[in-house]
Model the fold of this input.
Amino acid sequence: MSGNFRENLRKELDYQGVLVKELSSKTGIPVATLDCYLGTRATVPSVEAAFKIAQALQVTVEHLVTGENINEKNAHEKLERETQELIKLIKKLSPVQSKAIFNLIQTFKIKAI
Done:
């Protein structure tokens, strides 16, 4: 997902099946104001309004602004760190141990297919 606040908010509302009037009720932001955020002029909300919207939709403000899911981003970064750590550990193994680990990974790879 990417885009701007208007597009990201629209996608999130559609994804969750939330109507603008429901979001208005959850946030206290008038429907007309929300319509301005979603309209072709794409008015940008205040930080406070964006925070209320994010809370009501149970997403981050960053997600609404950038379209990125912070949880996916954090999971990717964690996976990168874990991968780097595995590489460091494997480099410390003897050639026989490395080959055994390689064969074990190949076994998992075959079972996953």
About this structure: Residues 72 and 103 are 30 Å apart (CA to CA). The mean pLDDT is 86. Residues 70-91 form the longest helix (22 residues). The domain at 5-68 is CATH 1.10.260.40 (434 Repressor (Amino-terminal Domain)).
